[in-house]
Amino acid sequence: MQAKALTVILAVSLFLSIVGLFFFVYEGGFGGRGHGLGGQIPGSIWLLLFVVPLLVFAGVLGYALVFPELGKGEPRLEPSSVPVVEKGESALDAVLRVLNEDERKAIEALVAEGGTMLQKDIRWKTGLSRVKAHRILFRLAKRGIVSAEKHYNTNKITLADWLKNKNVMKDH
Questions:
Q1: What would the pLDDT profile of 97-145 be if each residue is shown by its tens digit?
Q2: Total domain count for the chain?
Q3: Nearest in space to 14 (alpha carbons), one of 47, 61, 46
Q4: Could you give the angle at which helices 130-142 and 119-126 cross, rounded to 10 degrees?
Q5: What burial class does residue 161 get, using C-beta atoms within 10 Å of its C-beta: 0-12 exposed, 13-18 middle, 19+ buried?
Q6: DSSP conformation class of 172
Q7: Which residues constitute the domain of residue 126?
Q8: What gap in Å lies between CA 162 and CA 171, rounded to an integer?
Q9: Mean of the per-residue pLDDT values for the chain?
Q10: Per-residue CA distances from 110 to 82, 97, 118, 146, 167 (Å)
């Protein structure tokens, strides 16, 4: 919902709740004698008119507090992780532009060794911890930048074919 709609709902429900509370008290509360409207409307109805708008008010306010980005009207778009290849630039250069520093180190180590290395060698060459190297290579594999296959007690990491051939983007 947009911020204006949330504000209107909050204002109307708060107003109705106050009016309901006023009439509940004015009409005598639970089982009291109503002296304003001649006792025609039971006090429980006025209480209901107080409680329901109050619950709506609390619900809409909670919604606005929990999901503040929804009140802004426009969806937030995340930046694309797909690199745009500029004219004359290789796919590898485009990928390196969007990677963080540690991911870039791992890819550069792979490229320097011809595109295939053992995970433990990448770890030693980049200076990353065992766990961090694994997580980085897992993320890169998930994105299709590298592939991994079991090799004894480590993984054999291979750079994706579309990144090995530097002329791939120039052919299209």
A1: 889 999 999 999 999 999 999 999 999 999 999 999 999 999 999 999 9
A2: 2
A3: 61
A4: 120
A5: exposed
A6: -
A7: 91-171
A8: 12
A9: 76
A10: 20, 16, 9, 9, 18
